[in-house]
Design brief:
The chain is α/β, with parallel strands linked by helices and 325 residues long. It is built from 11 helices and 13 strands.
Length: 325
Amino acid sequence: MNRKPVHIITGFLGAGKTTFLNHLIKEQLPERIFVIENECGATNIDGGLVMDGVEDLVELTAGCLCCSLADGLLDILEDAYKRREEYDRLVIETTGIADPSSIVQVFLENPAVEKAFDLQQVICLVDAGQVKDWLNEAEEALRQISVADVLLVNKADTVSQEQVKEVTELLKGINVQAKTLAGSQGKFDLKTILSVGTTKPESVESLAQVHEHQHEHSTTDSNSHKITTFTLTFAHPLDLNELQLDLNRIVHLYREQVYRVKGFIAIPNYPNRVILQSVRSSFIATDGSPWETPKDRVGKLVFIGRGLQKQTFEKMFKRHMVRPD
């Protein structure tokens, strides 16, 4: 089946999501784009939305996607599937206060949706002048940044170059895996953006090039609200069946603390990397590329969350390593 590419655009209030969507639509012409717009209120679609290149635009107004996902989004996706010959690409723009992990979960976990649609990436826009305040005031902003594959520092022309650099480093400290780009008025290099993906093996496996990274970031000196990012490295394969119980423990016991887990592992007697990532209330395993040589079979998982203790998760995972006799 020819799966339709899907892009999720998220970002806190006023970050410039619709402006970026305009840019994407213009740059992708003559492609036909189906847009799902999710905003709170009766009618919130931006009146200035570019319509050339938009095959259809559908509003979800019954609350946020994170709250009304099961009915609203799945119904629209069913309709979009029936009309799949009418468009080339699907874009979902979330409300500024949504947790996009709920949307990601539908595309990766629902077999019918996964068969028809190919989630390419989660794109998160941040306002260069406002993001520090967001991080202090709203956990939704933290979750949006954590789940993103690409972070776009928008409105870079409204602050100094030094501030852009500080914001970029701040975002990298939270989400070391994401590609971070700076731009203005919603204009960014789409080729670079579209090359980075949620489930693309080459994107996830680029972790192999990332050095062991452990960082704890506190949004304010006096605030106990801490964002922790660390990498676990596994020199031996993991028994995925044995690990399953602990993966379930993580998503149930640490659901409010673990924002994102993403990486790859080796499993015994299997030639390919296994891409492993958490999405809200579950872990999802997908097939990756083949290991080049036996000595390269080293797994890496990046954790992003609030107040996480690396030692706890390291102990949990490493007890499932299968060492050679």
